[in-house]
Design brief:
about 650 residues, Immunoglobulin-like, 11-stranded mixed sheet, about 5% helix, Secre_tail
Length: about 650
Amino acid sequence: MKHKNKNLSLTGRELKSTFKPLVWLVVFLLFKSNGFSQDLFVGNDTYLYAKDVVVTVTNDIRLDTPTSNLYFRGDAQLYQVADIKNSDAGKLSIYQNQTTNIYEYNYWCSPVGVSVEGTAKANVPFNGSNIHDPVDDADISNVNSTAYLYTSAYNGTATALSNYWMYTLRDGEGYNSWNQILNTGNAGTGYGYTLKGSPNTNNVLDFRGRPNNGTIEVSCSFDGVDNQPNSGTPNYAETLTGNPYPSALDLKLFFVNSPNNQADLMPQIFFWEQKQNNSHYLVDYEGGYGTYAPGNLGDLLDNGTYTNATFENYNSDGGTIGDTSGNTTDFSANNSRRFAAVGQGFVIMSNVNGGNAFFENSMRVYLAEDSTPGGDGSIFARNGNSKTSKTNNSKKAVIAMSQNGVDYDALFKNPTIVPEIRLHTRIDNTFYKENVIAFRESTPNNDTYNRFYDATSINELSSDAYLISSDKKLAIKSINYSEATRLPIGFKASKNSTLFSIKIHKLNNVPNDVNVFLFDNLNNTYTDVKNGAFEVTLDKGTHNNRFEITFAKNTLDVADNTFTDFNVFQNNNISQLKLLNPNSLSITSIKVFDVSGKQVLVDLINSAKNEYKYSTKSLSDGVYIVKIESLNKQVFSKKVVISNK
């Protein structure tokens, strides 16, 4: 059903406009000399009630007095087109569910700010007074609520939220950058905040205030000084932000539609998720960050790629210390977590010095929440009940509407299929680290880091596994699939005798004839990780040059036998490594690694020769791997034993 007049567009499955007796909803059409504007005006002691619809307003909204209200229930959302801020003292009321546990955080971003009478055409900051407790959230026709009470105790109650856990993160450079705001401190429009959950099973928060609209800026700037190096955070800044609108947010468009975001931010978004662990002490927390990468910015039907969070423990500096179990909810099948629901907070990261991140109406979309792993909706991650109660198990038809130019009907019916290999590394039999290899034909270069296609984790784990490209440690790596592609994979061990077990967890739309192997340069072995697991025990340190993910069992199986006449000799009598190249094969590099994977020698070759000689006098006795790469990207490895005695 669609109803539209000159002043207000109401689109969706159901619409109820409810008024108090003898009171009218007044919508004015304001004329200007060069045209006209469309505004929504709600007068004194008047309200509009909307259920399961999108309410579209072309320009701005004026909620005239404190009794001028909009009540949005079910899947109702507000969409505004023009970049004109809203005005006055009335309030939008919109629901979102919080976590049903007093020990776990949600990351929030408020869709409303504190309404101020007489303040015109401006977004306004948020504080704890914007959060209300519905009188009866089960009866969504009941529009009454009361401002939530707050307690300074660590534990929230069924009637009071704990303000102790309300923090913001702005231009942060480590754990100590979190700023406690309590319920009385303001968070600027677009800035996120943390809040722990409630023991109340009816865990609905009623956000009431002036609806945010238009262009919103948040800072994500690095000042060049790492103020807390022990936290494990590298030299960049992080800001907790989120979806600032009372509608869903398309995270791909967050990058596509903003050149500033493309230039000033790392091209990834991080979502906090936490395991229920009944403790307020940091060292007892078990949580982590999932990572979203937008993929090919030129293909709006490419949803991007999401890799799941890994749960880790944390020390008093906020650094990870390992020894955890389990992983969080896998949202990858739900549009790769592209769509953020109303209220969803997330973390952004500066690209070098960073700058300001921008949110715009062109990134907004009406998309009902469906926070299930295999759903088709906007997502708000929580422990507990979903926002919308399902009366049956049938899947709702997907309705997505916007004026941002994206054909969402085509997106949901015929998205770009991106085959994915979801690789799980189990570390010391305690937790899994997930890394994703995404097959994107548009990937610029398989051998380098490609912005938007690839993504890092938010920080390194104490023991970790990652794909390597251009010296970056990646959680997501996109490739234009070729059987000859070889992807370095690295492992970090926090102690000696750390056990790593690597296997394919899931293949999404990957052809059956694609093979996946883990190549061990030290032992010159290929292990099929598609049908089994590769296990290795490593000593403390990083091991970045020993292992590769490959799609063919042996590069020497190719017909031309590129390295057939290439010979490698170690002459320990004169401490010399000699390589014979009788056919003057075009090679690009000769590298030598010790058994830990540390590179001890590198020679980048500009022109072919018949013979190469290198002194090994400075190297310790032991086993080394000599690795030669040809011009056509084929690799030959040879193990040598060096003894200078």
